[in-house]
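Bumping with the actual sequence this time:
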Amino acid sequence: MDFAAKPRDRLEPLRAAARAVPGGMALGRWLRRMADPQLREIARLRRAEAGRLFQPFPDTCEDRYPALFDALAQRLAHLESPRLLSFGCSSGAEVRALRRRMPLARITGLDLNRRALDQARAADSDPASTYRLAAAPDPDERFDAILAMAVFRHGELEANRPPSCTGILPFARFAEGVAALDKVLERGGWLAIGNAHFRFVDTAAAAGYAADPLQAGDAPPQDLLYGPDDRRLEGVGEPAVLFRKLPGGDRQ
């Protein structure tokens, strides 16, 4: 018996039959989306929220960036009740990880995925946690730290690595998203951007920030990056994850 052989794929006969019928594979994908609530919500987002959506896939896990979360807790330790924004909070794993480190923090999670937000609310009953269906923070809000981890990216860029990101997620959308976050971050506050397909340093807002020397091994440097012209950057990495908004000057 060949123990190295892969287990038999029980669905392969059905896939073979679908491939033999014109349009069969497309029908199969549609049926799968209709049967899976998560896939249905992703399909809705890509259809109804295409102009506001960044990463359509809500993949996350508990305590995904522990070194970053620990660093933020240390840098905000002087505040009794820091205000944090988890931008693209998905099912709330990031909010819960931050809560364990900063029990008195007021944390807001924003996302466009309705199903993920329902999961976040069900898993977090802390009255200081707020989950809201939104593509951007309210301009009147203020935060001491904002996290946008694995948000400014797109699975199709990662899968296909096209020479241009224009038709999937253009740089201008990233710059607009960063500008919206910058407006609600207090001066002296912290902005975390990681696992992204763009560099914060290429945005206009970056002139008002200083990169923190934090080397977060759990957020390795992104090597699939696109520049302001939407073209793929070759041989360029982005090691910085955490940025501090300069304390001086007038609010932008």
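The tokens above came from a reply further down the thread. Confidence is low (pLDDT under 50) at residues 1-7.
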